[in-house]
Specification:
The protein is mainly α. It is built from 13 helices and no strands. α5 packs across α13. The two termini are 29 Å apart.
């Protein structure tokens, strides 16, 4: 009965987190005309990191870093994935961008086979095939609106997979709170560097390369700063829910609930941003979700180490 309770509460915590993250990420689209992606991440981390430190202090977190080199590589991959994801929000619908990021389990299988020689059974092969079909349906490479920029979220999913593999194989001893805090810290540092470089060497928006991607350090208004603080606060709360979920529940079962993000993100984008999806996009998203669930459940048969997930 205790294990069932942990799984149920873990799943609910994940749902709470995704319910927060979906609408919360719409703020990024609202802010894209007033701030660059680098400056956004720097300012968000400026508020999020102290909040995480406070939460860690309250929870009595162990701040020991057991493998610094692995932590650095893990967070560089994570930072790259998040920068790609948030940049993509400026020119793609949220649900499509999220679907690209959620190709992560498929890339975990591919990279595990390529880099570590891990055996891939028929279930995992079917997951890769189904997920690939879903990706092709969304990208529609023969369509008139296709652009190579549309592949960016999928590249984000690949980097997130590398981050998760590093977490699973080399950072499994680290505290989840510490991993989340370091993720925000790396995002803030890389955001500051990107803003500085784009300020010194300006880049003009061109086509799908939006101003949100190319803008360096800009003048802030109180309303913009307030929205960034709100985004940081809700991101931290969502991170706490996810951390708590993986502390009390079996990750191989509760991480399936993370796909609810696509529902909440799609609804939030429809309500607040008036973004609409083509039926083709919906079919592709469904196939990616199915592939992710198959990959996760197949992995549960052989893997017993927690994969860290970003908030």
């Amino acid at each position: 009965m205790k294990s069932w309770s942990g799984e149920i509460w873990g799943g609910l915590y994940i749902l709470f987190a995704m319910f927060i993250i979906g609408p919360n990420d719409t703020l990024v689209v609202v802010l894209e005309d007033d701030v660059g992606v680098g400056q956004f991440h720097f300012l968000r981390s400026l508020f999020a990191v102290p909040l995480i430190l406070f939460i860690g202090w309250v929870m009595g977190t162990n701040w020991t870093i057991y493998r610094p080199w692995a932590m650095i590589i893990r967070n560089l991959c994570f930072t790259t994935a998040m920068l790609i994801y948030f940049s993509s929000l400026s020119f793609l619908p949220m649900a499509v961008t999220g679907a690209g990021l959620f190709t992560c389990p498929i890339f975990v299988l591919i990279f595990s086979r390529l880099f570590f020689g891990q055996h891939i059974g028929w279930r995992r092969i079917s997951a890769v095939v189904i997920g690939s079909i879903g990706v092709l349906i969304i990208l529609d490479p023969n369509g008139t609106t296709f652009s190579w920029m549309n592949i960016m979220p999928i590249c984000g999913g690949a980097f997130l997979a590398l981050s998760n593999i590093m977490t699973k194989r080399y950072c499994y001893k680290e505290s989840p709170i510490l991993l989340s805090g370091m993720g925000f810290l790396f995002l803030g540092i890389c955001g500051a560097i990107a803003s500085l470089l784009l300020t010194i060497y300006p880049v003009q928006p061109d086509g799908q390369i939006t101003a949100f991607i190319t803008t360096g350090w800009g003048v802030l208004t109180w309303s913009v700063l307030g929205l960034i603080i709100v985004q940081a606060m809700f991101s931290t709360v969502a991170m706490w829910f996810m951390t708590r979920a993986y502390q009390i529940g079996d990750p191989t079962y509760i991480n399936v609930y993370e796909y609810s993000f696509l529902i909440f993100a799609g609804l939030a984008a429809w309500i607040f941003l008036e973004q609409h999806l083509w039926m083709r996009d919906i079919y592709g998203i469904i196939l990616i979700v199915v592939a992710g669930i198959i990959a996760t459940q197949a992995g549960a048969r052989t893997d017993n180490i927690t994969l860290d997930k970003p908030a």
